[in-house]
Design goal:
single chain; alpha/beta; Quinone Oxidoreductase, Chain A, domain 1; Rossmann fold; 2 domains; 7-stranded mixed sheet; about 30% helix; globular
């Protein structure tokens, strides 16, 4: 077995050039821990934001002047190669996927994680690359649609950024929940979004959803490209605007709508939820994969030594679905 861990470090907040390859001793799993040989890991928009230290309100969790945990990457898939004392959920040889959360270090060759963390056995229907992204767009979108927005069968939902990691997952999940789905994207991705189940696709470069007569029960702004005030005219009288990108504007809208009005603005930090909450959601996603009603949309794969290039690509804003490191 290898005795060294190959990883990527970010010691200062900034652009992709702050990412530096490092080699460290291979960790030994302690009580209740598993050592995972990572086969694939996600490269996400959220990873780039954490690398840059934005938004600044997140720095109490990340580190005020520099990252508190210098390794990067949150979502991964791989194989258990060693277990610590007392481990019962997993065994050596198990294919698993999950997220490291604020411990980071997923863009590495190996990682030690608590067996009680956000870890699941990977289903046969997912490749290592697909399994690695399940805790990003799919998990966040399921939480927002089901728990935050309370989306119900028969309701109309507008998904802003429908071709991205969250958006492509949200289109599929909303359709599986029985909603009528409209998505926004650029012209080059309209066929993809339609193929995922959207009954209507809006080319945001040509049309403005706010100037139409259609009213939606839910507006899911996956990228933070709009706001509650800008989307209010597109909501029904009991409509909900939900967004995973917290800003001062969204925070104020949440406080205001919690006290006044029937239209609501809502947010959730999915990655901060307890593992006991997230694991059942992942179980539901695994069931949808097995039923053939959900599959992660994949864009590009980068080699482990191309993480800087992968971050630069994600920052172009042109990715479709998910980007992974192998």
């Amino acid at each position: 077995m290898n005795t060294a861990l190959s990883a990527w470090s970010v010691r200062r907040y900034g652009g992709p050039d702050q990412l530096v390859p490092v080699t460290r001793p291979l960790p030994t799993p302690g009580p209740g821990q598993v050592l995972i040989r990572i086969q694939a890991s996600a490269v996400t928009r959220a990873d780039g934001m954490m690398r840059a230290g934005v938004p600044r309100w997140a720095r109490p969790f990340l580190g005020f002047r520099r990252p508190r945990k210098d390794l990067i990457g949150t979502c991964l898939s791989g194989e258990v190669i060693a277990t610590g004392p007392g481990v019962s959920r997993f065994a050596i040889g198990d294919r698993i996927f999950g997220e490291a959360g604020l411990n980071f270090g997923a863009n590495s060759s190996h990682i030690c994680m608590e067996e009680t963390g956000v870890l699941m056995r990977a289903p046969d229907g997912l490749s290592p690359e697909e399994a690695a992204v399940m805790c990003d767009g799919a998990l966040t979108s399921l939480n927002f649609l089901r728990e935050v927005a309370g989306l119900r069968a028969g309701e109309k939902i507008l998904i802003l950024g429908a071709s991205g990691s969250l958006g492509s997952a949200a289109v599929q999940l909303a359709c599986a929940m029985g909603a009528e789905v409209t998505g926004t994207c650029s012209a080059r991705n309209t066929a993809l979004v339609s193929s995922l189940g959207a009954s209507r696709v809006i080319d945001y470069t040509q049309e403005d959803f706010r100037r139409e007569n259609t009213r939606y029960d839910v507006v899911f702004d996956t990228l933070g490209v709009s706001s509650f005030d800008q989307s209010k005219s597109a909501l029904t009288t009991s409509g909900r605007y939900v967004c995973p990108v917290l800003s001062l504007d969204l925070l104020c809208a949440m406080l205001r709508t919690s006290l006044f009005g029937t239209r609501k603005a809502r947010f959730s930090a999915t990655g901060m939820l307890k593992p006991d909450v997230l694991r059942p959601m992942l179980g539901d996603l695994i069931d949808l994969v097995a039923a053939g009603t959900f599959a992660p949309v994949m864009d590009r794969t980068f080699a482990h030594n191309q993480l800087v290039e992968a971050h630069r690509y994600v920052e172009t804003g042109r990715k479709t679905g998910n980007v992974v490191l192998v």
